Amino acid sequence: MKSIYDFNAERMDGTSQAFADYEGQVLLVVNTASKCGFTPQFEGLETLNNEYQAQGLTVIGFPCNQFGSQDPGSNDEIGAFCQKNYGVSFPMMAKTDVNGKDAHPIYNWLKDQKGGVLTDGIKWNFTKFLIGRDGQVIDRYAPTTKPDAIKADIEKALGNK
Known about the structure:
Layout: E1 8-10, E2 16-18, E3 26-32, H1 41-52, E4 57-63, H2 75-86, H3 105-113, E5 128-131, E6 137-141, H4 151-158
Parallel strand pairs: 3-4
Antiparallel strand pairs: 1-2, 3-5, 5-6
């Protein structure tokens, strides 16, 4: 059985990130966009990352331009936007496809683990996946689910409840 720790992804700076480096942590994996109605969720994601990082949570963003061309910039431009406007300090991967033939393997695996309501495909920006310390998907959250609404699930995954 695969886990998220079996995957690698390219970071915004072009270096490779082995997800095995996150083994034993709780992860919140989110496909993001800089020009989306949900973009203000960056603030809530940063708050979660800061609040729970010492307990073992890492939020990981995957910028995606597949929905309404809402993240058209380069990796450098996206990174600068996230830092300047929302103070994002959590890891951001390189711009990624989450659906279709060029979808990143990590997203194919995530969708296989937790399908959507009508289809397994990612429907829009800011779809969130909560990953347990064992590297398995705990739950999938719709783009409309605000980061603070996931707090109880994060605390449970961290072993706080």
